[in-house]
Amino acid sequence: MNKKALSLTEIMIAMSIAITVLIPVINMFSSAGRAVQKSTIFNFATGLGRKISQHLMVVPFDEIQEISLPGIALCDSPDDQFFSPFLNFSADKTGLKRITQEDLPELYGFLNLYDFHYALSVSNVSFGTGDEMKSVSILVTWVENGKDMIYQTHAYIPSN
Amino acid sequence: MNIVLENYLSASKQLIEESGQLNLRQSWVRCRQFANQLQISGDILQQLPAYSATLLCLIKTEEASNARLDLLKQIFYRFLRQIPDHHFLGMLAFVPRSDLEKSLLPFIYDKGNLGRVACYVAAKLKVQVSPEAFEYFLKSRSWTNTDLVNLALLAGKNAATICSRLEELISRPDSGVVRDNADELRYILFDRNPEEPLVPDLAAEEKIEPATPQISKTETESATSLKSAEADSHEIYLGKAKELLQKPAVALSALIFSLLLLIASFTFTPEPDSSVKAVKKNRKKPEFWTDIVTQQQVTEKFIAADKDYRMGELFLTRDRVAEASSLFKDALNVDPTHLMARLRLGYCRLLQGENDLAVDDLKKVLQLDPGARLANYYLALIAVKTGNTRQADQHYAAEIKVNKDLSIGLEYAGFLQKNGMTEKSEKVLDEFRQIFPDRTLVVQASDKNSGKGKQDE
Predict the structure, then answer these.
(1) B303, A139: Cβ pair inside 8 Å?
(2) Are residues A78 and A84 in contact, defined by beta-carbon separation less than 8 angstroms?
(3) Across the interface, do A135 and B85 touch by the CB < 8 Å criterion?
(4) CA distances from residue B400 to B375, B393, B405, B437 in whole angstroms, order as listed
(5) 8 Å CB contact between B8 and B31
């Protein structure tokens, strides 16, 4: 019998020891990683909500329209009043940037990965002629670890 | 000395794995023995993991002493550049609150990772901060939402006081507090009521400047000799490791272990590159979403009902109770579990004099959520209206238990005073005076109650 060779039992023992040691290590890494991931996404969602709410304040009153759930995706979406085009670094239209793989690959990667969408639930209230108000619920949705998540914030916009 | 340090390390490692009160754990005596043979120096702290260094600090220094505070500051300065592991947090839980407040809280002012992690750790350890401090924290640096949630957790029972201070600060243009930060913090404290701290998203690792601890000459010498002894022992260990790896069984185990580790690192990387499979597009609309803040299920039905509810609130701002009431009813027709719509419908009915219906609505709210704010207050108003003093007293008392609103507190005190319960009224005022020490309103009401001015207040 070759004493230097390994028996199946030895390999099995080695593997079971390795797995026993590895499981807590994996758990530690994965739970810490998930916590950081969760906070990054939360920050992004709140920032997005705030950006939409600030934008609503400058959009003409009549142009604030309902966007039903599941809403509009943030990447690869058709032109809209909020995010597409997203940036323009020059004075003419040649500098327009959209959230696409070509224009903004990093942002696109993040948004595409979590399937970020936004929707607006708009209510019109009229207190009399010329005295109107819109109550807008801003809904940011995404998928995190297979779970559909939502962040809600609200804005009230007067007609004048 | 080298052996002592090694022994201390292994004893502290064993101690952290054990449970129960620190000084009753099995390895406590061993830890103390070895710790007492060690001289605290910057070099030794560099060689210890965070929990071991904290334990050494707890063993070697007196509570509230300057030596302990200095040492804790060195430990925080060194280790709070990244998210602490559960061993370190577990050990910090044994550090007395007063020591933590003096040593940990100053780091929150730091503009980098240190400040963010310090805030997270303070929130994790449930350290409470005085309401005045929040203004300075907000002024000192920029705050992300995660940081603000963690900062809000430091408010403890002072949330109401902090909210009113922030309100004042926001209205003062010279306060120096970034308005957005103050607004967001107020919103978190008032509306979101977070329960667990959030792990901050840290910037790329910062360079740690040495914390310049004062080390005596003898300590430096012993540290140098320790270093050379350490280097020797490293070589011995390296040789032994090489020998071991020449054995096929060990080599194979090491290979399997490395492979598994490699696979695990690929599988559990939290933020994979965008090339990794993204969420499938054009997926079905889900049955519900989970609210990131409250962790409650949000259905499309709820969102539709919420629309009517918010319109109702707008009508209430103009005192158009009938329209508001009908909108709240519409909201409840869409989703009968919409708590706020039910609460405000109860309020509208109270204003419209439909007391019985209002009581039904408000009791339903309390059935669904016994801690619902304002439900007991509205019930108290109805009881006052119908002349049921005892019931009004009960509802007011239940309300101020869950809602430390100053105006409700003053109203309750006034009600008690009016009904001859002066002593109880004073007690209520005392409670609110403690929560809002800077509000003269409380004092004035108290003066009115006692019928004389209180010069000292």
Answers:
(1) yes
(2) yes
(3) no
(4) 11, 11, 7, 17
(5) yes
Rounded CA separation A109/B283 (Å) = 18
What CA–CA distance (Å, rounded) separates B436 from B444?
A: 13
Cβ-contact B432, B445 below 8 angstroms? no
Cβ distance of A6 and B310 shorter than 8 Å: no
A-interface mutation test, from B191, B303, B328, most A Cβ less than 10 A away: B303
The single-letter code of the amino acid at B413 is: A
Query: Can you tell me whether residue A125 is helix, strand or coil?
Result: strand
Q: For residues B213-238, b (16+ Cβ closer than 10 Å) or e, as one string?
A: bebeeebeebbeebeeeeeeeeeeee
What is the ipTM metric for this complex?
A: 0.77
Which of A3, A29, A39 has the most B C-beta neighbours within 10 Å, making it the best mutation to test the interface with B? A39
Per-residue pLDDT tens listing for chain B (457 residues): 578 888 888 888 888 888 777 777 778 888 888 888 887 777 777 788 888 888 888 888 888 888 888 888 888 888 888 888 888 888 888 888 888 888 888 888 888 888 889 999 998 888 888 888 888 888 888 888 888 888 888 888 778 788 777 777 777 766 666 677 777 887 787 666 677 788 887 777 555 554 444 434 444 344 334 444 444 555 555 666 666 666 666 677 777 777 777 776 666 555 444 444 444 455 678 889 999 888 888 999 999 999 999 999 989 988 899 999 999 999 999 999 899 999 999 999 999 999 999 999 999 999 988 888 899 999 999 999 999 999 999 999 999 988 888 889 889 999 998 898 888 888 888 888 888 776 665 545 455 555 443 333 3
Amino acid at B94: F
A30 touches chain B (CB under 8 A): yes
Quick one: which of A110, A30, A21, A27 has its CA closest to B268?
Answer: A30
Calpha distance A35→A47 (Å, rounded): 18
Q: Closest Cα of chain A to B297: distance in Å?
A: 9
> How many residues are given for chain B?
457
Instruction: State pTM to two decimals.
Output: 0.54
Q: In angstroms, how far is CA B187 from the centroid of its own chain?
A: 15
Do B303 and A15 make contact, defined as CB atoms within 8 angstroms? no
Q: DSSP state, B23?
A: G
Q: Could you give the dihedral angle defined by the CA atoms of residues B58, B61, B66 and B71, in that order, rounded to the nearest 10 degrees? A: -50
Please indicate whether, in this complex, the C-beta atoms of B314 and A148 are within 8 angstroms of each other: no
| Amino acid (1-letter code) at residue B428 | V
Is the CB of residue A149 less than 8 Å from the CB of residue A143?
Answer: yes
CB B391, CB B376: distance < 8 Å: no
Q: Does the N-terminal peptide bond of residue A85 adopt cis geometry, omega within 30 degrees of 0?
A: yes
